[in-house]
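Hey everyone, long-time lurker, first post.

I ran two proteins through the pipeline my lab uses and got sequence/structure pairs for each. Pasting them in order. The first:
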Amino acid sequence: MESIPVFSPWIDQDDIDSVTRALSLGWISGTSPIVGEFETAISSICRRKYVAAVANGSVALDLAFEALNLAPGDEVIVPNFTIISCLAAVIRSGATPILVDVDFFTWNMRLQDVRNALTERTKAVLVVHTYGLPAQVEQIAEFCKEKNLFLVEDAAEAHGINVHGKPCGSFGDISTFSFYANKHVTSGEGGAVCTDSKDTYERILKMRNLAFGKLKRFEHEELGWNYRISGLASALGISQIKKLPSTIGIKQSQGHRYNELLSNYANIFTLPAKEANGSKNNFWVYGIVFQNEKSRTRAVTRLIDKGIETRPFFHPLSEQPVFKKHFSKPHFPLLNSLKLGKRGIYLPTGSHVTESIQNKIVEVLIT
């Protein structure tokens, strides 16, 4: 029985040629000229003055919070429904994460949740765009400006999403991207930190590269990280960015077709929103939310038995053992994120998913 993976990237001859060019020129390390070419290409999709390409999206968040110089006792407001990298970056910065709920239908942070969590110790907000739809980032950005808070914007899953014409990745004081294999733009492994602040950019460049000294290279006044991206990864990323509009178009077509095939089964699960917060869904993943946890378990078992791979939704941060070990019970109700974590899955999308494969997946799903 042939299995159906949850995702397969679009890799074509242009991607191969781009990587081959880098190899032939010897541009393989993190100091290769092609890294700068990749950074310029990234800036074109997020409209930022400065971009630092890095090893992955998780370390991009580490660098973003390092640049804020947060102190113990400082609070950062974080959506409860997101990947562990977000929590890890806040904790490693020395700050305290304050978890807030998300909207049940868009799966994203809302301004009201941020407003309710504000205290005199709040120093920053981490807004995350999740699974293909944006958060209420316009309103949250305005609120942060009004309250003099740093806004870190995680656009790891938001390549090519525009909010009323402005791209995700352009709202935060610092914004981050991931270029992991399943993203709309992939470099295999990779990420980026983006900003309009020259001082912040120079700080990130230094910390990305082991905090080498300017005058005496191997004398270090502080500890940095080796978070560089390779030239080969950058070469792949450059060619991938050129295909971003067509990649999003195909994913949206797959998402809309799933919506059509599943439209009569609202009594079984909730389908993803077609648009929210000034943007159409770009269907980075196609997620559905079951009425209860048992229904999800039965459906996943059927799909696995037929060789169809799925992924559960993010496990809420408040339920992570590492959070419970180090922090007290969250301050606010987190009902939506808890439901999403227990009931949600996403279905296969990508270069391998044809209409006949979608038909098969839906047939097994609703049996």
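...and the second, right after it:
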Amino acid sequence: MPTPLRGADLPVVHLSRHHVGGRVDGLVREGTLVRVRRGAHVEAASLPDDPYARARHLAVAHAVAVTHQTAADVVVSHASAALLWGLPVLHLPSRTHVVQRSARSSSQADDVVRHTVALLPHHVTSVAGMRTTVLARTAVDCARSLGGRGGLVVTDGALRAGATRAELDAVLAAAVGGRGVRRARAVLALADGGAESVGETLARAALLAVGLPVPVTQLRVPTADGVFWADLGWPELRLLAEYDGRLKYGDAAADVGALVAEKRREDLLRDEGWTVLRLMSADLARPALLRTRVERAVGRLPLTPRPYLLPSHGD
């Protein structure tokens, strides 16, 4: 489950103005410090080894540096706020997003996106000691500004983290007439906190894009040999979809058996009248082929394509 960062989780950012002379340049040259943005650095030893974790850590460090170096009273927002909330994101933000009262600022750096919009007082909170948009506002801002898939990844995560549909709807209602509201409304209507990973969200988005109805997430499927849990299911079509070919049992012992009993499980599911559609990451970028596979699995249905969920739309 997504968990907001704590103060101890924030990267320690060293500002050049706090060091005397050219000492910072020397530490960068020797590899002790890594530049985050102009005048701000983190210790190389603090960076994770995993490439994605390292990039995410640096994106958070960038947001920390911006708040430290900006004279204006800013609130971290959009995808940058999503990082502070611990939410999944499809693409890490290349710039830090903030909301501020006025467009005037002592810094107009191109690595910061400054949104000069009014924030209701209850749309602002503190995460890890940083002024940040609340969870629901963060999710809606992302649904408005990111592509369909990117918005769905964040809103799925926000629901899983504890945001309610009522909260999301209230934030969206307050933004009526604003840019991206129509897209956000469509994305929020499909958001589902049952998605347990970005991959599961993207698999659902791909199937929704080709026109399948809204599925049930984490569907409980009884068989003659026990209960299985499918990533996605359409009971009315007797169709199951699994991302990356994984079916999950309800306990650890059964999960061990899953490694050697995949064919047996599919036979059991077929005995119950289910068709299993297995998806790999490569399938998600080939909508025409995916649609053909869907039609082979369940026949030619009256599909309702959702092109805003295709990879080419804003992602």
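Reply from user beta_strand_b:
Welcome! Quick read of the second one: The chain is about 40% helix and 20% strand. The chain has a mean pLDDT of 90.
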